Amino acid sequence: MMSRSVLVINCGSSSIKFAVVPEKRNPNIEANTSLTRRSGLAENIGTADARLNIVHENGEKTSIAIPNADHQIALTHILGALGDEKPIAIGHRVVHGGEKFTQAAQINEDVVSAIRETIPLAPLHNPANLLGIETTLKLFAELPQVAVFDTAFHQTMPAHAFRYAVPEDLYRQHRIRRYGFHGTSHAYVTQHLNQLIGSTNHGWLSAHLGNGCSTSAVWIGKSVDTSMGLTPLEGLVMGTRSGNVDPSLHLHLVKTLGWSLDEIDQILNKKSGLLGLSGVSNDMRTLTDMAKTGHAGATLAIEVFCYRLAQSLAAMSCALPEFTGIIFTGGIGENSAEIRARTLALLPHFNLHLDDAQNQKMIRGAEGRIDQNINGGRQIWVIPTDEEGQIAQETRGVLGL
Ligand code: ADP
Asked: Tens digits of per-residue pLDDT, 310-336?
């Protein structure tokens, strides 16, 4: 039987994530949640430790060694792991679409060249994403393929939100501007919530809090601002990323410590954020546990994380003509009642009335409203994100499937 599923691929430099997303059966409800999707991860690609880990529809997990597999061999194993589940299309996550891609695009030679032209803006991610695309074009030549960009949803930002106050040539000739990322997640949670409450006429502040973190202001279904910028380093405190720092920090560190720009880049991306502040972990679960035992670093990391998140939400609210409410998503946003409560408590002038019991209930994939539903109060929601489902849906949309 033809399953009409879409294979979603997220190709990194040494890993490939995949998910098989079945067709939606009801336009409002994804018939199969992520729990019933076949999904997996090929990791350590190109090394002797390469493995393919698969989670089957019934939750069973299998893992096979694929020593020294390159991307092509790993993708062949992934295809083998699909069994009879032959997809009708492939949707690729692509990190950066520059200004060219305001929505998902069917992959052809022009799209591949445009993604290649965007490599200077995403030197770490786009080459790996392209490698995934080029390999699957070879392996699955008969399947239509679509690129879904992390930046595309934010292309509706007005110039006053996306321009930096630097000389215009840097923008016109070198494409220096704010792009924003996590667009697939912000698009999913806001569209899903608008469907749930039956109208799009809302202004939401969406907070995606995972290893990477960003906020977005979404007015009538369109992104009007977001906290990440030219790169995913701008904005909030994240697991290992610093978020905003003084723009002169690089110069200061070069001059005073003699560090190279690459070293500074590594430190700001891999050793900062929750990890840098706490000195112990980038994992919010570990930090909340350690803070309870009085660990000073963990306590400070949580305080800075919540303060900067609240600041960002307050700043983002300027972008909304009307402010309906706040949505929490991502691993931290979906699971930590404590981080949600601490952040909201820092916004006392926002007319937010958290329902503590509801807040405690919204964990491990639960979706729902967590404010007290007071007349005139802002709504507060927890909506588990579904980036793979969104990529599959946009893939079908572009292809008319
Ligand atoms: P990614 O951005 O890699 O997709 P996730 O969205 O899965 O990551 O988020 C990972 C983060 O979610 C980690 O910091 C993890 O500690 C946090 N997290 C998961 N469960 C909980 C929990 N119960 N309490 C606090 N944080 C949690």
From this structure: 999 999 999 999 999 999 999 999 999
Q: Please say if 150 is a catalytic residue.
A: yes
Ligand 1 contact, 335 CB (< 6 A): yes
Q: Is 210 in the pocket of ligand 1 (CB under 6 A)?
A: yes
Q: Choose the residue to mutate in 283, 290, 306 for probing ligand 1, maximizing ligand atoms within 8 Å of C-beta.
A: 283
Q: What is the pLDDT of residues 344-387, one digit of tens each?
A: 999 999 999 999 999 999 999 999 999 999 998 899 999 999 99
- Averaged pLDDT, 153-176: 98
Catalytic residue among 70, 84, 110, 150: 150
Range 232-243 average pLDDT: 98
Which residue of 335, 360, 388 sits with most ligand 1 atoms within 8 Å of its CB, as the best mutation to test the pocket? 335
Side-chain half-sphere exposure of 184, counting CA atoms within 13 A:
25
